Every structure is written in C-alpha cells, then in structure tokens.
Amino acid sequence: MNILYFISLVLLGHVCVAEYVKLTWNITYVDTFRDGIVHRRAKGVNGQVPVPPVYINQGDTLLLTVHNNLDMPTSIHSHGLRHDGATFMDGAAMVTQCGIPPGESFTYEIYGAQAGSYWLHGHRKDDVADGLRAPFIIRDRYSPYEYDEEVLIYLEDWYPTEVPAKMAEILAPGSIGPPAPTFATGLVNGFNGNDSRPIQFVAGKRYRIRVISMSSTMYWRFTTPGHKMEIIEADGITSEPCEVDGFTLAPAQRYSAIVTAHESSDFNFIYNCTMYADFIPFIPGLNPRIYTGLIEYRQDAPIKHMEIVGDDQLVWADDLNMHALNGEPALPMDRQVVLETRAFISTERINFRKLGSLPYTEPLVPSLFTAMSMGEQAMDPRVYGPQAQAYVIPLNQSVEILLKNPQGQPHSQHQHGGWFQIIERGPVDRSELEQPPLPLNFSLADVPFIPVQRYTGVPMSRDTVDVPPFSYVKLRFRGDNPGVHLHHCHLNPTHSGAGLSITFVVAPDVLQKTLRIPDELYEMCARQGIKTEGNAVGNWGLDFTGLPTVPVELVGSSPRVPLPSGAPPNSANSPDSAIPPNSVNSPDSANSPNSANSPNSANSPDSAIPPNSTPPQPIN
User: Fold this and answer.
1) For strand 335-340 and strand 398-405, is the pairing parallel, antiparallel, or unpaired?
2) What is the per-residue pLDDT across 387-414, written as a single tens digit (0 to 9) for each?
3) b/e per residue, 179-217, with b = 16+ CB within 10 A?
4) Which H or E run contains 212?
5) Strand 133-139 relative to strand 54-57: parallel, antiparallel, unpaired?
6) Each residue of 421-458: pLDDT tens digit?
7) All residues at 6 or more sequence positions from 539 whose CB lies less than 8 Å from its CB, including other chains
C-alpha cells in the first residue's frame, strides 16, 4: 500500500502538468476591528485582514510578488517548506535575505514539492503577530486517503496592542521579570470565534478537516464531539491513520483529520475550539476562552448535545503515538546537539531568553551571505557571530537535538528547511529546573510525574514540536538540505523576539559550489547599506570590530529550583523511574548529554563559543 502510493506520486509527477501560480501581495497597514472588541492597526495584504488562504497543487510553483508599503522592512516565510536548492527563498530576514525595504518589491518562488497544510507569514521583527499571515495549502495530486470534501479551519490569537509596543515592554531595561500578561481574543477563520459560520456536512460523506494554528502565543484544542477524527497529516507529513477525540495545537502546528459524517441528518452537532495558555493566570472568560461552532447537517435540525467529559477521559493526538506513512526508520545519531531553554536577564535587567549560551540577535550580515563568502572559514561556527548561535552541520550528517525545557511553560519549537523525527520525550533532571521570576498556575514544589516515552515502529516527523514544561524531547534530522536554517521557539514575540533561537548552517562548503543567490537579493541589501560579504559584521576572519555589545548575564538571573529534602540529584520525578531523566542509557543514546564524552561537549551550549556544531472554501 505504501509502496504503491509513492510509486503513484512518481508517475503523477510525469503525467501531471505543473503550473506557475502568480499572486501579488501589497502589504500595507490596515485599520481593523476583526475581534469585534478593539479597533487597531494591523499589517494586511491588498487592503484586507485577514489575509485570504492560498492554494496550489503539488508540483506547482507559487510566484508570490510582495510589495512592501510599510515603514519598515519585511519578509515572507513559507512555513514548513524545505526550499531545496533555493534556501534564499526561505524568507527569514537577516538569515537568508535582507528584509524587503519600504517601497520595494520581491518575488518569492515557492515550489510545492510536498502536499500538506502550511502557512505564509511575515518573518521580520515578529510582524506575524500583527496579522501578516495566511494559510497555504498544497493539494495532493494523489491522496492515499479517500474523502469527498475539504474544510479549512485556521486559528489565531489577537492582541489589543501592536508588536513593537509589546516588544518595548518585554525588553525594557530595569525590570525583574516579564511584563504582566495581555489576554488575547481567539479568531476562527479570521474573526472572533464567537461568530464562526457552520461547517456544512452531508450525511454519509467523508471530510478532510485541516486545522492550522497561526497563533503567536496561545495554544488551541480542537474537538468534534459526536464524531471521531482520524489524523492523516501533521505539519505536511502524511501519517498512518490515528484515531483521536481531539488534538492540541501549539503555535504554528497543523493537522489534517478525516471525519465521517453520520448516515442520518436528524441532528446537528457542535465543534469546540478552546484557546488557552498554562503559563498565564487562569481567569474565567479570559484564559481559557472557549469557542463553539455548528456542524450543520440540516438547517432546521436540533442540536444533539453530547455528554460533557473531562479532557483526561479523551484520546488526544500524541506525536509519539503517530507514525509517518513513508515508513522511514529512525535516523542514526552521528552527533548530538544539546539545547536548553533558559531565561537570560542581562546586567541592564533586560529580559532575554536563550537556547544556547547567548540570546539570539540578528547578525549585521545575513548568515547565508556569510556562508557563501567566507571560503573554508564558513565551516567555523564562530564566523557567524556569537549571537547567531551557529551550529555547522556537514552534508548528510544525522543530528540528534536534545532539547531541554527546565521551565514551567511550554515551547513550540520550529525548524526551517525541513522537518525532524520525534524520538523521545521525558522529564528534565530535577536539579536543572528553573525558578520563574513570577508565580505560575502551579507550584514548582509539586512538579508532576513525567514518564519517559519513546517512539515505536516508525517515528513521526514534523517541523514544529511542543516541548512541555519540565521536559526534554529528542529530535533527529539529516543535514541533506544545504542552507542556513533557523531553529526557534514560535511563541512570538515573547520568546523568539527575546532571543530563543539558534542557527543550523548545513554544508556551507557545498553551498559555495552549488548555490547562486539572485543578484536582486544582493542589490536589495546594498540599497539598505547592509554588507553581503564577510563574517557576522562584514569583516574577515574573526575580526568582529563593530559588533553590537553582547549582553552580559546577571549572576543568578536563571536560578535553579532547590531539590526537595532527600531527593537524589538525578531523580526523574519518581524513585522508581527506570531511565534517568535525560535518558543517558536509553536506546540510541551514545553518551550522556552532560558527559565529558558527549559528542558536543567541547562546544556545549554553555560554552563561551557557539557549538560547532476550485479550492475548498474556509468557514468564517
């Protein structure tokens, strides 16, 4: 079955005529009242917010011409796509290109190699949170699953203030912790979730429901009481069927599920979209916000209300219980990169965040241009600057990311340029837990038991993974896509905007021989006075004269939680835990992540030097 499916894809690639789909985005400021609560300015496209969904077919190329009529640079990232051989089309400003300056235009060529549910969004100074985002659907030429129609549901959080004002508050000097939370309104298909239009069902038909989280900070849960869902895709990766009652979406995650309509149209049903965050206070009506919509079989039919059950009685999607349909086995581990989410309060008392040794800051030369111009030195991670936190990956090296989250809030981690396999999840060592500067909704003295879970059979892959509080995840990817790829938290602007990013530079030696960056991108940089050669500041070698001041961490700004009396230092939250919290002895783990023999110990994240390392219609 799987083999026939992929043979069909290859044959269809020869018999189907691919198209160039042309689309123009004129990005401007737009006054909007989309939540029905607050009038505010947003970043819109062609005079409107929300931005309409974009559809192409697998094998097509989207020619997206962006006219920037803002008063600041911008760029557009096609979230979830690899951009093989064209990493400069990734759209991450000051990573793979300079931003598009005000008054200028650029055309992105986005090849739809892999069918799935994606989205397009701004990638300069977190302008995604101000409305510059849209669903992007690449429809299958041939689907391994049969269904009659598609339904698109896209979810957003919407805040009363613009991102620049919020970032000024977050990064204001002199504070002792993050600012007080602002509560968002949930938007379902572009507008207040309380105003959602019904989903039309016809008895007996099968529906593919695509659910896309375009949230900047808030999490969502989606359920269809009275209907089982069968997940068939996550983040553009087709999966084996996985029956669930619902799924949680971290910011930037996507799912497709098959829902079979009942044979009778006697009743209508309710679907639920709940927006929430465990890391801000629970206040009824504000957090969580519960939105419901109608699954309508017949306009005059009564609603069949299902028995209310607790979330703990439902079957929720879990990456480690899902399997990629392509049957790809777990990659070997050639190298392990250890990342850790941490607060970083500078001596100026600015609240940064970090994944490596320092908070990420944009270099003065886009990292791709450094990789292309530094010759053999491009293999040295130091040339990308101390705050790019660069890891250089040789071609085809298999990398395991051990991503530790010792904090009391989750992180939605996204990787540009491809996807990763999800190998394992478990508890962070209790001695590493971080004491937050502000109280959360629970006490750190009572951290819940977190079991060690590991994939079985074939691991699931995706491009965005949720890392729960006090937990680690192990992810694996192969460096088979030469380019410069960000890895960052997708909680915007509070996390990524404060520095929770690192850079993977994959095979820069190969890039120099095979890639040609369009002259237009060099010229765009030149018109902004941005250098396109040299290290992170445009000098040669390790001369960083002109580098902006690197922040210095305030001693004790990221305190660890004291161990409970009598607890062993390496307790995995349970004295009977069979595997230590960092799974040093788990299968495929060659070395302890904290061991002197760890593959990355010489340049660990705590080192002073960065590691070397006819389209379906959406409901409104």
Assistant:
1) parallel
2) 999 999 999 999 999 999 998 889 999 9
3) eebebbbbbbbbbbbeebeebbbeeeeebbbbbbbbbbb
4) strand 206-213
5) parallel
6) 999 999 999 888 886 544 455 556 668 889 999 999 99
7) 545, 546
Give the DSSP H or E segment for 12.
helix 2-15
Among candidates 217, 616, 536, 586, which has minimal Cα distance to 402? 586
For 618, list phi and psi in degrees, rounded to 5.
-75, 155
The structure tokens 């790829």 sit at 485
Q: How far is residue 537's CA from residue 547's CA, in Å, rounded to a whole number?
A: 6
Measured CA to CA in angstroms, residue 222 lies from 212, 214, 303, 533 at distances of 11, 14, 19, 47
pLDDT tens digits, one per residue of 158-200 = 999 888 888 777 778 876 666 777 899 999 999 999 999 999 9
Q: Which of 408, 373, 410, 455 is nearest to 559 (CA)?
A: 408
Please tell me the predicted confidence (pLDDT) of residue 176.
62
Contact 207, 259 (CB under 8 A): yes
Q: Which of 525, 526, 521 is nearest to 109 (CA)?
A: 521
The answer to whether residues 609 and 603 touch, using CB atoms and an 8 Å cutoff, is yes
* Cis amide bond preceding 329, omega within 30: no
H helix or E strand, kind and range, residue 523: helix 519-527
Radius of gyration in angstroms for the set of CA atoms belonging to the chain, rounded to a whole number: 24
Residue 35 CB neighbour total at 10 angstroms: 22
Residue numbers in the chain where pLDDT is lower than 50: 1-9, 11-15, 437-439, 561-620
- At 518, is the secondary structure helix, strand, or coil? coil
Which amino acid, one-letter code, is at 379? M
| Spatial contact of 419 and 239, defined as CB atoms under 8 Å apart | no
